[in-house]
Amino acid sequence: MLKFQQISASYDGVHQAVDHVSFTVEKPAIVGIIGPNGAGKSTFIKAALHLISNTGETTIEGQPLKSVQKKIAYVEQKTAIDYTFPITVRECVSLGLYPQKTIFQRFSKTDWQKVDAALDLVKMSEFKERQIGELSGGQFQRVLIARTLVQDASYIFLDEPFVGIDATSEGIIMDLLQNFKAQGKTIFIVHHDLSKVEDYFDELVILNKQLIAHGPIKETFTEKNLIAAFGDSIFIKGGRLND
């Protein structure tokens, strides 16, 4: 069980980006986080994981976040990552093993086997010696998912993982995430495409600085809640927000 209690964060100590957001996810699920631009979706994740200054508390299985951080994997938006960094695909995936290592401890043969197995699952084995800057957006996102695989986290937070990627990569990633859930993991995805909500998610969090709704898709993905988050001008056709 993962509980968020009164999570808040501000841009400058005055203007609230996220305002006292509380909800609980009790069982393994794929949870979508949606809302308009500027709603605080990414900020909420960073605040809840104590990556930025915040107030409130996050607990996992009744334990404070700091005591169970090895159970958490966070993949930020691709735009926040330096693609020019001189690291290969295989080395990038291996970074997921560092939380399990002590200072100066070398990677074992078994560790590298885990890395290679993860790359195989995301269908990126043939690219393992390439520099990350040589990859397409979809390929790189699959590498980041492979990094969470070797970390073996129970709770995975993905910030806009499907922006700017190809349909093949998106399908591969969603299949993996469904397998993660079947293994007992919980995945949170900041998402913007409303047409995929009913296909992708078990639960939904709708934010606009404050929590608009949280719960199963059938209960939360409603016209009333979407208007409350996006405003009266929202136009819904087949579940897609008309930008």
Care to give the gist of this entry?
With 243 residues, the protein is of the alpha/beta class.
> Might you state the CATH topology name?
Rossmann fold
Cα end-to-end separation: 35 Å
Rg, Å, rounded: 18 Å
Q: How many runs of DSSP E, i.e. beta strands?
A: 12
CATH class equals Alpha Beta
Strand portion, in percent? 25-35%
Mean pLDDT: 90
Q: Under the CATH scheme, which architecture would be assigned?
A: 3-Layer(aba) Sandwich
Order of strands across the main sheet = 6-7-8-3-9-10
Order of helices and strands: EEEHEEEHHHEHEHEEHHEE
What's the SSE blueprint?
Elements: E1 2-10, E2 16-25, E3 30-34, H1 41-48, E4 55-60, E5 63-64, E6 72-75, H2 89-94, H3 109-121, H4 137-151, E7 155-159, H5 167-182, E8 186-190, H6 197-200, E9 203-208, E10 210-216, H7 217-220, H8 223-230, E11 236-237, E12 240-241
Parallel strand pairs: 3-8, 3-9, 6-7, 7-8
Antiparallel strand pairs: 1-2, 1-4, 4-5, 9-10, 11-12
Helix pairs in contact: 3-4, 4-5
GO molecular function: ATP binding; ATP hydrolysis activity
InterPro entries: AAA+_ATPase, ABC_transporter-like_ATP-bd, ABC_transporter-like_CS, Metal_Ion_Import_ABC, P-loop_NTPase
Keywords: ATP-binding, Nucleotide-binding, Transport
